[in-house]
Sequence to fold (202 residues):
Amino acid sequence: MNKILILFAHPRFEKSKTNRALLKNIKQVAGVTLYDLYEEYPDFNIDIEREKELLLAHEIIIWHHPLYMYSAPALLKQWMDLVLEHGWAHGSHGNNLKDKIIFNTLTIGGTKEAYAPNGHNRFTIREFLIPFEQTANLCKMIYLPPFAVHGTHLLTEKDLNEYARLYQTLLEKLAQGNFDIRITRKYSYLNDWLAKETGATL
Fold:
């Protein structure tokens, strides 16, 4: 069984109904560690060695965060800058994260249609995530497409419950190793792969 580390970064988690919904069933999935960076480091003083130990203890890493100004909240960026050190995470001798799986779980205010070449934001979500993907590549990790929840302000309670169910299903499949990396990487979103696997319509 794969151990999964969710690096959760949301400075206003108490106001996020979408993220509360996504995380409500996490404890039901064996092998998942939910790690709230803003709870752990309210002063931004990151314990680098502790973070490295967490990374080494898990096979799958998830950067779970809202999309803030086309990127991640500040603490997650600081985590990446400090923890993913040359000589440990990357470089000729930095192989500690080699072949670990990583991806982004995102909550996004804009609709999927708004993130397109002819849409309001001009670029796709995958294009905005290129720095994350290249960071993963630099660290010799396996980067998967994101799991994304679009149009968060438009979601009904039924929608939120369905996304929560999908996220739980995703985590269960990943923990059990019930997926093919080559197939999942062909999709723009893990949501699309899950839709084909489960018949979901979101």
Q: What stands out?
A: Residues 42 and 77 are 14 Å apart (CA to CA). The first strand starts at residue 4 and ends at 8. The beta strands are 4-8, 32-36, 60-66, 101-107, 142-143, 147-149.
